[in-house]
Amino acid sequence: MLILTAYLCWHRIKARDQEGILFWVATLFIGLSASALTTLAFYGTSKVPLNDKPSFVDDSHHFFLMVSVFLGTIVLLLRRWTNKWIQIPIVIVFGFASSTFGYFMHLEPRSDDPYRNPLLSSANWPSYGSLLDSTDYCIPINPGGWYLLKDCSPLKAAFAKRGSFLEMESPDGPRKLRAVGFENKNLEFKKPISTLVRQSGSSQVVKEMSLPGSVFRYFVLPTKVNLPISLQFFDSDKRLDISPDRIILFGSS
């Protein structure tokens, strides 16, 4: 696409079309800027791009480049052939082509899109929105593994199996637990889940705030509790065996 844009820019320079030159130079600048943003996003951090297999049309930075090339080509052809009997078929052809534009730009909903498929989303804003009024919060957002944090952060914890409970303690000294989450990557747990939190002889049942069956199950404690604690996850039928490496604790010192 950048090569095509550069060629059209050169073509307008050769034709000494000042308006065309300005348009295609601007379009080429948009394309180069979009490519630079994509390159920086890809090599600058492991958190982005937001999809596993980034491609030219998948990247949102290139949206305006694609639109500019599409519309610019139509204008270029209409200016090249001024006969209306030629212009009419051009408009019809590009009109039909524009109807597929959303498909090729992946603008239509996709089953594997975490921003459109609620089960693949790490965020459940109808439920999580109320947490923003709290004095502290750790809110899962998309893409998975990102959080909104206020006086709260993921905690390091050492896990040990004690009967049907997982015992957790902090290797970094005293810590207060605010929330618990675990990854449900294969969507294997589909029912609503609760967790039993036991600490210093007392216990409380905490229901999840996440959407049942979603990729990240999330539980917020009514009040903070000090580590160490013991956890047990269960649904309406049975106790669930959750691997410790999938569990994330959130809290503060």
Q: Can you walk me through this structure?
A:
- It is built from six helices and twelve strands.
- By secondary structure, it is of the alpha+beta class.
- The protein folds into two domains: 2-104, no CATH class; 118-252, Jelly Rolls, CATH 2.60.120.
- Strand 7 and strand 8 (202-207) form a beta hairpin.
- Helix 1 (2-14) packs antiparallel against helix 2 (18-44) and helix 2 packs antiparallel against helix 3.
- The longest helix has 27 residues, at 18-44.
- It starts with a helix and ends with a strand.
- Mean pLDDT is 76; it is low at 41-58.
List the helices and strands and how they pair.
Elements: H1 2-14, H2 18-44, H3 63-80, H4 84-98, H5 101-104, H6 125-128, E1 137-141, E2 146-150, E3 153-155, E4 158-162, E5 165-169, E6 176-183, E7 194-199, E8 202-207, E9 216-226, E10 229-234, E11 239-240, E12 247-252
Helix pairs in contact: 1-2, 2-3
